Amino acid sequence: MSFLIASGILCSAQAQTAAKARSADFIVAVVNSEPITNNEVQALKSRIQNDLPRGTKLPDDQSLAKQAIEQLIIEKAQLQVARENGIRVEDAEIELTVQNIARQNQLTQEQLYQRIGQEGLTISAFRAQLRTQLMINRLREREVENKARISDTDVEKEIQSRQLNNPTGTVAMDLNLAMILIAVPENSTPSEVAALQAKAQQISQQAKNGENFASLATKFSEAADKGANGGEMGLRSAERYPTLFVQGVQALNIGDVSNPLRSGAGFHILKVLEKKQSDLSGTTIVQTRARHILLRLSNDLTESAARNRLLSYKQRIQSGTDFAEMAKQFSQDGSAPAGGDLGWASPGQFVPEFEEVMAQLKPGQISEPLVSRFGMHLIQVMERREAPLTLREQREMVRGQLREKKMEELYTAWVQELRGRAYVELRDPPQ
């Protein structure tokens, strides 16, 4: 779950203040007996406006109000289903979310609440908005995300589709081709070239008709190796073959034979012996090597006490004490014997609240204490490097992309169905 769910909350605080200043409120619509008020519509209108990129032409007020009402209808309908299904958000989860929002805005929790108060939004109203968003997210996980399953077959089909649709076919593919070359000498006359082309076409057709390609290569090929090994060139990255060859076999399956392909050397007849995804895609990811000190929270060690203790550790480290020695002595984690060293990690390996902070640190830099589901951490990034995606990582990346796409499709369909089932009564237009 992303903690960016509250991105529009702070910027809508002023709209909440303006709404409160109204002498009276009234019902704009009813969703399954639950009202939508004019103040809610006005607040959401302001939030929508504030979320628009700078320089974007604002929609007219009527269109904006219509959009706000529709969003509120869908939100109310989802909340009602969430309550009916017994979905609850505990205060502890609200507290953890507030802490993460504060960290993302580079504020302490106290500073976050001060800013909210300065902009006219009460702490209780702010926490109520967070509770609403968390309930909807949990409902979405239950109704949509758990159904967005991607099979290994789906991943394979997507990878093959991307390879076939690539203009050169050179992405993440290994090829093993066999070749017969009918050489065209320099200064050949057009009639001589035509005769050689006809010969190449005849050999290609013989191979397509089932004659042994290796035997044909040994008999006819005029390549440097004279058709040794049946013309087989070996399994290699597609990037190491001439573009002409890659494009010529792009639409062919294993065992297929191409028509003659003309190059400066002559006419090439190719047979696809192997065609598979490369072990390395050529795409790189940034890996991080970090270490940490973890203090587990308990009745004897509160969050405040853990934070103060880690701040004292940080001060000692910055004064010259070795981080690894501090981790060995104080960290309550399995990495403590290794000085808190977590090894090289790829994106997504750690929990989001840990990884978001780690990603913002420069090598050598130490974080402020942060809370995760495991406790309170102090992180130091040791170094970073670029590493190629392995086959497994590439497959998982494709799987993740397919899952995101499927979730969006399922969520859109589910919301439309939910909206269609809801009883909606529109009353006085918003003002």
In short:
With 431 residues, the chain is an alpha+beta fold. Helices cover 47% and strands 19% of the residues.
So, the CATH homologous superfamily of the largest domain?
Porin chaperone SurA, peptide-binding domain
DSSP strand tally:
11
CATH architecture heading of the largest domain:
Orthogonal Bundle
User: What radius of gyration results from the CA coordinates?
Assistant: 32 Å
Oligomer description: single chain
Low-confidence stretches: 1-15, 17-23, 167-171
| Measured distance between first and last alpha carbons | 36 Å
**Succession of helices and strands:** HEEHHHHHHEHHEHEEEHHEHEEHE
What coarse outline follows from CA principal-axis ratios? flat
Sheet bearing the most strands, described?
4 strands, antiparallel
Q: Return the CATH class of the largest domain.
A: Mainly Alpha
CATH fold descriptor of the largest domain: Triger factor/SurA peptide-binding fold
Strand order within the widest sheet? 4-3-6-5
**SS content category:** alpha+beta
